[in-house]
Amino acid sequence: MLDAGCGPGRVGAGLAARGHVVVGVDADRELIEAAKADHPGPVWLVADLAKLDLAAQGEPELFDAAVCAGNVMPYLASDTEAAALARVTAHLRDDGLFVVGFGLDRGYPLADFDTQTAAAGLILEHRFATWDLRPWQDDAPFAVTVLRRPRPTA
User: Fold this and answer.
1) Does residue 17 fall inside a structural domain?
2) Which residues are paired to 65 by β-bridges?
């Protein structure tokens, strides 16, 4: 699992505790140091999601799934969202999942996200209004989106 924008590692640590092999990345060196100190086991790396190249950091394997929680997308540097989505997608195996959650009051329109995920080659599988999977409503203040990187067609 790729924990994209892992911060201090809480989500990745929870996934690792449930048996997943986790690589967490964040652009903030201090947060990565906190993740390493508080949650040994997973691999924690400093990386900019918009320029993500984990093979260059010794992690060449593609991931079955990626998660981007904690309002990462709205906090990315302006105009880097599409690049970040494309770079995370490039680290997924064919048929891999990408789960992204963020508040819709943070200045990153859901319509832009949908356009950018489609441009990255992702297919929308599900959308929920909360992390506990409450049904999506157009007036929801939060979106949790499950995307899939499709298998290539022959």
Assistant:
1) yes
2) 97
Find the domain containing 10 and state its range.
2-148
Q: Looking at the domain assignment, is residue 154 inside a domain?
A: no
Is the pTM for the entire model greater than 0.85? yes
Token representation of residue 67 = 């998660």
Domain CATH code at residue 50 = 3.40.50.150
Is the torsion defined by CA of 90, 96, 101, 104 positive or negative? positive
Label residue 78 by pLDDT band (50, 70, 90). confident
The tens digit of pLDDT for each residue in 30-45 reads 999 999 999 999 999 9
* Contact indicator for 107, 74 with CB cutoff of 8 Å: yes
Helix (H) or strand (E) holding 85: helix 81-90
Which of 21, 27, 30, 28 shows the shortest CA–CA distance to 2?
Answer: 21
